[in-house]
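Weekly sync, protein design subgroup
Attendees: M.S., D.O., the rotation student, P.L. (late)

Item 1: inverse folding check
M.S. brought a backbone from last month's batch and wanted to see whether the design step gives back something sensible before we order anything. D.O. pointed out we never logged the input encoding, so this time it goes straight into the notes. Structure tokens as presented (424 positions):
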């Protein structure tokens, strides 16, 4: 992920009630603040523009002053390179617009879609006359011009990836999962060559998620086999061109404090499914409860940690691990080697709460959750684990040197949330 900022994430489930006393706060003051609606809020930096999405609008702001630069009605958001994609959906018909966040200018729009995959340097669409009469197209991100059109038998395009936190999207890669088929054996997934649209011979039984790394098509099944209580995730890989089976391995999703399985291998708020990791490598647990990094292209463990814990987030440079999936102390590891960088005491925030969120960037780590009914955001420095702040509210976004936090205004207003932009 680039652009110097990574989305942290987002549901601000604020109550429209006055708090009896101000919540304790530590850390730098807000550089600027504004009020917006309660509900879903997302903030992400793209170049020199802060893009903010809430339930009423999506707008660009000057990160130094908070001055609005442009505004659109609220829509789904994806970041594709240096452009933004605004997603619309009316029943089953999808539409989107591509805009330049530096100016707010709409570059092109397309509607009446049956399928869509937004990637870092391309946009793929599917339009269908009938369920089995479809056309898949690769578009240039900036102009919308088709790079290729091919006939396809269905509208399915895989959206799973590795290391991409919404609204950022996965790398385009050499292949994309496509063509979901059903037969007597169940569902299977194929892949297309991203440069030409050619459908390859490789197919794999569909699981929870499918990704292509290099020339390897991988399916992950997160429901353990009958009688298996080890939190097993089964990974199966085939050669994307020939369909030849490459390997089948088991990794583990880790446990919550009460012993239940976490099941997923993503951060808590990735939206579409994105494995914690980077390139071909993902984070998981070992059977005996240690963090590990596993390479999906070759089918083997790269390293195994020295201290027990469950991976909960990461940005491809560092990996955030918690003692249990939902409770306990925090540890930051080097993603490439597993070397421990620092530990921090249990933040006291339940990972099972609706307000639990995490975010990791090159310079900052944040965890957010509730103490009772009151949400808090904690921010740490990647370099040494020093806690830089504890703020009442919900995490709205995290960058290399900033955090966006939403909280009830000091003088509560029904239906309103205060948005603070804080520099570190």
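Designed sequence read out in the meeting:
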């Amino acid at each position: 992920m680039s652009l110097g900022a990574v989305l942290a994430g987002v549901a601000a489930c604020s109550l429209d009630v006055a708090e009896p006393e101000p919540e304790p706060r530590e850390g730098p003051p807000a550089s600027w603040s504004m009020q917006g609606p309660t509900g879903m809020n997302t903030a992400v930096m793209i170049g020199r523009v802060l893009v903010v999405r809430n339930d009423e609008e999506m707008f660009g702001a000057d990160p130094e002053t908070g001055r609005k630069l442009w505004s659109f009605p609220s829509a789904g958001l994806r970041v594709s390179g240096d452009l933004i994609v605004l997603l619309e959906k009316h029943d089953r018909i999808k539409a989107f617009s591509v805009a330049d966040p530096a100016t707010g200018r709409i570059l092109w729009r397309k509607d009446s879609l049956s399928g869509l995959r937004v990637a870092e340097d391309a946009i793929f669409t599917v339009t269908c006359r009938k369920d089995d009469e479809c056309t898949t197209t690769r578009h240039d991100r900036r102009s919308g011009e088709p790079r290729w059109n091919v006939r396809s038998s269905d509208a399915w395009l895989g959206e799973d990836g590795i290391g991409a936190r919404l609204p950022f999207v996965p790398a385009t890669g050499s292949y994309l999962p496509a063509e979901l088929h059903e037969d007597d054996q169940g569902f299977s997934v194929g892949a297309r060559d991203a440069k030409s649209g050619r459908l390859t011979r490789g197919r794999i039984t569909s699981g929870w998620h499918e990704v292509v790394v290099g020339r390897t098509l991988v399916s992950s099944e997160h429901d353990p086999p009958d009688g298996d209580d080890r939190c097993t995730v089964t990974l199966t890989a085939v050669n994307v061109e020939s369909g030849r089976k490459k390997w089948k391995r088991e990794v583990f999703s880790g446990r919550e404090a009460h012993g239940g399985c976490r099941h997923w291998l993503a951060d808590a708020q990735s939206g579409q499914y994105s494995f914690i990791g980077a390139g071909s490598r993902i984070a998981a647990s070992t059977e005996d409860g240690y963090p590990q990094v596993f390479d999906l292209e070759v089918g083997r463990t790269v390293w195994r940690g020295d201290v027990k814990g469950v991976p909960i987030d990461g940005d491809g440079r560092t990996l955030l691990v918690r003692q249990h999936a939902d409770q306990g102390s925090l540890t930051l590891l080097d993603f490439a080697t597993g070397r421990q960088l620092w530990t921090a005491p249990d933040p006291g925030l339940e990972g099972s709460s609706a307000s639990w969120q995490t975010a990791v960037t090159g310079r900052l780590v944040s965890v957010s959750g509730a103490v009772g009914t009151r949400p808090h955001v904690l921010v740490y420095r990647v370099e040494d684990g020093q806690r830089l702040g504890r703020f009442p509210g919900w995490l709205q976004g995290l960058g290399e040197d900033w955090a966006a936090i939403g909280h009830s205004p000091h003088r509560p207003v029904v239906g309103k949330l205060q948005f603070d932009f804080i520099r570190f």
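Discussion: Residues 5-423 form a domain with the Methylamine Dehydrogenase; Chain H fold (CATH 2.130.10). Residues 152 and 177 are 13 Å apart (CA to CA).
Action: P.L. to compare against the previous round before Friday.
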